[in-house]
Amino acid sequence: MTQQEYVNTNFIEDIIIEDRESGKHPSIHTRFPPEPNGYLHIGHAKSICLNFGLAQKYNGLCNLRMDDTNPSKEDEEYVQSIINDIKWLGFDWDERFFFASDYFEELYKYACQLIEKGLAYVCELTPEEVRKSRGTLTESGTNSPFRNRTAQENLAIFHRMRAGEYPEGSKTLRVKIDMTSPNINMRDPIIYRISYATHHKTGNTWCIYPMYDYAHCISDALEHITHSICTLEFEDHRPLYDWFVNQFTDLPKPRQIEFARLNITYTVMSKRKLLELVKGNYVNGWDDPRMPTLCGMRRRGYTPQAIRNFAAQIGVAKFNGISDLELLEHFVREDLNKKATRVNVVLNPLKVTIENFPEDEVLWLDAENNPEDETAGIRQIPFSKHILIEQDDFSENPPPKYFRLSPSKEIRLKHAFYITCKEVIKNSDNTVVEVICTYDPESKGGWAKDGRKVLGTSHWVSEKEAIPIEVRQYTKLFLDKEPENVVPGTDYKDGINKDSLAIMNNALAEPSVAKAAAGQAFQFLRQGYYVADIDTTESKPIFNLTVKLKDGWTKKK
Q1: I want to staple 197 with a disulfide (CB 3.0 to 4.6 A). Which of 36, 72, 281, 351 is the partner?
Q2: pLDDT tens by residue, 246-282
Q3: 352 with 444, same domain?
Q4: Where among 259, 279, 314 does a domain terminate?
């Protein structure tokens, strides 16, 4: 297949096409290699979509591999969460699910080969001494005093390190490259350290663990990965990646390619910072709907399709930038508009009595579930003498161009009738507590038979049949547009929005909402898109605000 047959390719695809056509890599094999030390976030989603998407587009394969080389920070909980998130996004790895720990024996043997070749040595410098000896960006490093041990001595000590004969942190295995290299990553990097932490998969079988830079590239080669796609912070690590795989003639030679990571306004993406937010109780766990984690976005009601569409829209770049949160919200709205069931929910109820409607009668009216989906069908909603509308939908002294209910004003009730305000009832502090109206029985469905039109439409619920719900209104977690770029001497957490969550306990919904399943999406008419929360109970369903109806992004365009 020629390059002309592909459209809208990016620079990574151009490399893949060139490698296919030249015969260097006739088939494509990628991988997504998360470290199981935290939950995946929207930035990982971009990489997931890229790696799995490229494999699909070019009839290749994509592995899932957990790069689990640091037992002190990894946990089976994170492994399972990663599996769940990738499947939720709509991708599958078939039988190609691996762990770097699957290769611990091979990694150990390759390290022994490096020692035998005189390319690796056991070092007894402390971590602080190693840091100092590596130099700076402008000054060369200095050789370790243990650099010239014989291969036999290094191999014997390394075997004893594996046997657990030395204290943790007392020795490391380093590769012998160039302490004067302008690339600090090439200045005799550590490839093994002693750790007596229990590994989530191998238990206490090992007490020495490979470092990420070493294990990652050898694991890629062992899996016959052709294109190792990673983010730009690994660009300076590419020479080391290539150095490792080039030392072994029996290993394939993957090609590392870097792309710009995803950054989004009003959001932090650092795993360390996300962990701080969780442990510091700034949020209610990894799946808090304010978090950029995929489980948090799922709980908030974001859809996999919206995230995939967003990833496709922002594309793949060579330089870091920042994407607008409103663009992501635009794709969420766009997808939910096609899928979400429309329902009536009143967040701040105001009682309306229809004086010319029978006291004990309940009229069931047809309401479309989704005007964007012809297959969605209809539901029935109850109408009675006593209904509830939003407090904001009534004004006793309306401003100019106010089209909602006011004295002597006629409006439309969605799916119901025209009503006209006749009287206002207030309590002792002069607050409006009830509005008396009449309805036009000839306007059933919200359309008058005589053809007259009104400009205002309100959503509503029948008071007797309405069910109480809890509504959680979420907004941006951070007030700063770029919270990770804080002024020196300040903390990014100082920019947390203390009003990012508001809980509304007085909301009332039409009765159909009582059957909502956790994760089910709704459009609360004239309010926004909401999702039934996983904490929903039969006594009082809970709904999270996914995104409001207004789409500022389309206006920007």
Answers
A1: 72
A2: 999 999 999 999 999 999 999 999 999 999 999 999 9
A3: yes
A4: 259
Quick one: 105 and 156 in the same domain? yes
* 213: CATH: 3.40.50.620
Q: How many residues comprise the chain?
A: 557
- Do 231 and 180 lie in one domain? The reply is yes
CATH number at residue 420: 2.40.240.10
Distance, in Å, from the CA atom of 186 to the CA atom of 168, rounded to the nearest integer, reads 24
List, for residues 499-524, the tens digit of each pLDDT value: 999 999 999 999 999 989 999 999 99
Q: Sheet of 97-99: strands edge to edge?
A: 29-32, 61-66, 97-99
The pLDDT value given to residue 553: 59
- Residue 389 burial class via C-beta count within 10 angstroms: exposed 0-12, middle 13-18, buried 19 and up: buried
The string of pLDDT tens digits covering residues 385-421 is 999 999 999 999 999 989 999 999 999 999 999 999 9
Rounded CA-CA distance 539/88 in Å is 29
Which pair of structure tokens corresponds to residue 540?
Answer: 């009082």
pTM of the model: 0.92
CB 31 within 8 A of CB 173: no
Q: Which two tokens stand for residue 500?
A: 């990012």
CB burial class (10 A; 0-12, 13-18, 19+) of residue 220? buried
- Give yes or no: residues 36 and 74 share one domain: yes
Pairing of strands 61-66, 255-259: unpaired
Scored b (16 or more CB within 10 A) or e, 436-447 reads ebbbbeebbebe
- Cα separation, 471 vs 348, in Å, equals 11
Paired sense of beta strands 418-426 and 410-413, if any: antiparallel
Closest to 82 in 3D by CA, of 39, 21, 43, 123:
39
DSSP-derived 3-state class of residue 302 = coil
Long-range contacts at 548-555 (CB < 8 A, ≥ 24 apart): 549/333, 549/523, 551/329, 551/330, 551/333, 552/326, 553/324, 553/326, 553/327, 553/329, 553/330, 554/330
Torsion of CA 242, 248, 252, 256, to 10 degrees: -10
Residue range(s) defining the domain that contains residue 376: 345-459
Shared-domain flag, residues 188 and 87: yes
Mapping DSSP onto H, E and C, the string for 344-395 reads CEECCEEEEEECCCCCCCCEEEEEECCCCCCCCCEEEEEECCEEEEEHHHEC
Side chain identity at 256, as an amino acid letter?
Q
Domain end position, chosen among 393, 424, 459: 459
Structure token digits, residue 254: 């993957």
Supply the DSSP string of 479-536, one letter for each residue: SSSSTTSPPTTS-GGGGB-TTSEEEE---EE-GGGGGPPTT-EEEETTTEEEEE-TT-
- Counting beta carbons within 10 angstroms of the beta carbon of residue 553, is it exposed (0 to 12), middle (13 to 18) or buried (19 or more)? middle
State the pLDDT at residue 551.
72
**CA terminus-to-terminus distance, the chain:** 36
- The residues with which 523 forms a beta bridge, in sequence order, are 342, 529
